[in-house]
Every structure is written in C-alpha cells, then in structure tokens.
Amino acid sequence: MEKPHPKHFLKIILEILLKILHFEKGGSLCPVFQTKNGRGRYVVIDIKEYERMVAALKLQKALADGERSAEQGGWRSAADVRKKYEV
C-alpha cells in the first residue's frame, strides 16, 4: 500500500486548524504564525486577506511612484489632468 504524501497531511491539518480558528473568532479567520527559535518563520492567512494585502501594497507603490514623479517632474494642475485623460 502506498504511503500518503506528507503535503496531504499538512493540507488536512491546516484545514482543521483554520476551521477551529474560524469558529473561535466568531466567523472571521485570524492568521496562524509558525516560529522557529522565537522568530517568525511562516504565516497562514485567509486568501481574501492575502489579496487585500497585495492590493494595498500595489496601491502604496503606485502612490509612492506618483509622488516621486511629481517631485522630479513637477505637479500638474487638475485642468491639465482632465484634458489629458478627457475627464
């Protein structure tokens, strides 16, 4: 008989852990942290929360790029922006 792959066991354990945490937090998932020698090593989070974090980081980067561009090339007036983007 073939042994199950260790990743299969990990998936089952994570599913059970997330169900327990979901229940304990009253329907909202909280992150699960794994540490090694007292330092953070891994985090398990809900995919929706991960997607929100990625979107927020992309927005922060875009805003920082825009601010840097404005500082280097000068600011544009609202009228110029409306004209350029036909708004």
Search tags:
about 90 residues; alpha+beta; 3 helices; about 15% strand
Characterize the structure shown:
There is one protein chain. With 87 residues, this protein is α+β, with helices and mostly antiparallel strands. The chain has 2 domains: 1-45, no CATH class; 46-87. Helices cover 62% and strands 13% of the residues. It is built from 3 helices and 2 strands. The protein has a two-stranded antiparallel sheet with strand order 1-2. A hairpin with a 2-residue loop joins strand 1 and strand 2 (39-44). It is elongated, with a radius of gyration of 23 Å. It starts with 5 loop residues before the first helix and ends with a helix.
Provide the low-confidence segments as ranges: none
Count of helix runs: 3
SSE succession: HEEHH
Rounded mean pLDDT score: 81
Q: What is the tally of beta strands?
A: 2
> How much β-strand is present in the residues?
5-15%
Compute the gyration radius: what is it? 23 Å
Largest sheet entry? 2 strands, antiparallel
Shape: elongated
Distance between the termini: 67 Å
Structure in a nutshell:
It contains 3 helices and 2 strands, in the order αββαα.
Task: Summarize the SSE layout with pairings.
Layout: H1 6-24, E1 32-36, E2 39-44, H2 47-73, H3 78-85
